Every structure is written in structure tokens, then in C-alpha cells.
């Protein structure tokens, strides 16, 4: 299938760092969609593996796929850089290890945010390797995110829709925040009067590499401690450390 027609005025922005095992899977899943975004931008933080090679392989099929390489700093800077390279009024941030399963995923995602008109939104995330332990973990995480919206919104940028007008109004991601930059941005949007919703018509999939590597209990506990640390100290002063580009292999 040739990727030539654009039907949705949407920009997909994907930050990468040593994602050779996953970026191709994500891009292939975008290629298979029944509707396509106007722009796809990958912003790479100087990967040392074959990430760029995997992107180049897909450019023949995805005519409007662009990639840029910038020095590693924070993932927030990568996402902001990607926004500056696009013009679409709707932004969709995806992590490199996400996957759009089902050819109508992007169609359903976009129809819901166009109908409900949120300023920021996210869809439920399911594990790419399905077993009861993974299912329980991600279901619990999803419920926690939905519950948190009423007092301290927690939304990750694994899949995160933001209306460009609102993104510009709050000046985008804070590039000095190393971890938790996504929830900090969502909280600023909500505090500015923005509308947050969790989509109901579609689900996306993510790698379980970190959960499998660290163990579900240990990983869940670490995420809770991350949140408490950020809540008590603030995102800029927290002692949270998160090694992006480290867990780059499939389980």
C-alpha cells in the first residue's frame, strides 16, 4: 500500500532513543490504518543502534514521514521540537513502543476527540503480550489514571492527544523536567481551564518490557513512589530517575 493520501489534519510525534526493536512496529501499524495523519515526525536523541535505519526503511511507504536528530537532553525537548516541525491543529504524541492494532484504530481515536472536542485526551493502554498478570496490571493502571483526574491528573504521553491551540497557550512541555513532564503538562492544561477526557471507543497497545524486566509488583511500587516524590517535591525538584533508551529490547 502506498502512503500518499492524507485525510486527517493530525500530527503524530514520536520521540526515540535506541528503539530499533519497536519503532518499525509502530510505523508499520500506522501504515496499515484506514486513515492517515497529515504529518508524522520522529525526533531521535542520537540513538546508537539501528533506529534511524528502521525509520528510513518506512519512508518509501510513508511519504510524509520525517525524522530529526537532536542531542539527548530530555524527552520533553524532543516532543517540543517535533511540535515545532509540524503545523496540524491536532497533536498526537506516541511512545516508540506503542502499536495501533486494528486498521481503524486511528479513525476511532480521531472521531472521538473530534466529536467530544477535548483539549487533552488519552486512550486506554493494553499490554502487547497478553496474559492475566499483564491484563490485571494495565487495567489497574488505567483505573488509577481515570480516578486521579478528579484531584491530581496523571496521564502519560504513551498516547496523548493535545489540541495545538492549548499546547501553545501553556507553552508545551517543560524541557527542564526529566520525569513526569507529561503529567505536569496535563495538569497545567487542566488548571488553565482545559478539558481532559479518557477515550472510550479505542484501545492502544504498549510494550511490557519494563514491567517484565523489573517485575509487576516492583514496577508498580516504583511508579507509586515516583508519583509521591513528584507530588511532594514538585516535578523539577524530585529525585526520580528514569532511564530512557535503556530498556530497548523485546521481551
**Beta strand %:** 15-25%
Please identify the structural class as seen in this structure. Answer: alpha/beta
Radius of gyration: 17 Å
Annotated CATH architecture: Alpha-Beta Complex
Uncertain regions spanning at least 5 consecutive residues? none
Strand tally is 10
At the fold tier of CATH, the topology name is Spore Coat Polysaccharide Biosynthesis Protein SpsA, Chain A
Strand order within the widest beta sheet: 3-2-1-4-8-6-9
Number of domains: 1
CATH homologous superfamily classification: Spore Coat Polysaccharide Biosynthesis Protein SpsA, Chain A
Characterization of the model:
- By secondary structure, the chain is of the alpha/beta class.
- The protein has one domain (8-233): Spore Coat Polysaccharide Biosynthesis Protein SpsA, Chain A.
- The protein has 9 helices and 10 strands.
- A 7-stranded mixed beta sheet has the order 3-2-1-4-8-6-9. The protein has a 3-stranded mixed beta sheet with strand order 5-10-7.
- Strand 2, helix 2 (51-58) and strand 3 (65-69) form a beta-alpha-beta unit.
- The radius of gyration is 17 Å and the shape is globular.
Amino acid at each position: 500500500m502506498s502512503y500518499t493520501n492524507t485525510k486527517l489534519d493530525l500530527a503524530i510525534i514520536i520521540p526515540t532513543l535506541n528503539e530499533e526493536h519497536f519503532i518499525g512496529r509502530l510505523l508499520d501499524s500506522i501504515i496499515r490504518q484506514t486513515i492517515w495523519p497529515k504529518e508524522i515526525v520522529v525526533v531521535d536523541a542520537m540513538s546508537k543502534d539501528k533506529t534511524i535505519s528502521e525509520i528510513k526503511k518506512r519512508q518509501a511507504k510513508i511519504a510524509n514521514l520525517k525524522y530529526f536528530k537532536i542531542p539527548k537532553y530530555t524527552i520533553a525537548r524532543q516532543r517540543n521540537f517535533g511540535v515545532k516541525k509540524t503545523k496540524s491543529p491536532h497533536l498526537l504524541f506516541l511512545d516508540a513502543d506503542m502499536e495501533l492494532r486494528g486498521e481503524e484504530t486511528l479513525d476511532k481515536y480521531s472521531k472521538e476527540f473530534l466529536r467530544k472536542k477535548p483539549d487533552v485526551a488519552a486512550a486506554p493502554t493494553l499490554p502487547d503480550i497478553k496474559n492475566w498478570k499483564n491484563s490485571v496490571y494495565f487495567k489497574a493502571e488505567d483505573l488509577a489514571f481515570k480516578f486521579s483526574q478528579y484531584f491530581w491528573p496523571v496521564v502519560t504521553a504513551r498516547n496523548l492527544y493535545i489540541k495545538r491551540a492549548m499546547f501553545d497557550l501553556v507553552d508545551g512541555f517543560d524541557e527542564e523536567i526529566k520525569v513526569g513532564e507529561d503529567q505536569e503538562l496535563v495538569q497545567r492544561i487542566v488548571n488553565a481551564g482545559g478539558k481532559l477526557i479518557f477515550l472510550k471507543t479505542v484501545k492502544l497497545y504498549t510494550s511490557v518490557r519494563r514491567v517484565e524486566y523489573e517485575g509487576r509488583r516492583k514496577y508498580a511500587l516504583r511508579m507509586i513512589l515516583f508519583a509521591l516524590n513528584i507530588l511532594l517535591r514538585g516535578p523539577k525538584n524530585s529525585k526520580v530517575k528514569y532511564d530512557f533508551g535503556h530498556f530497548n529490547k523485546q521481551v
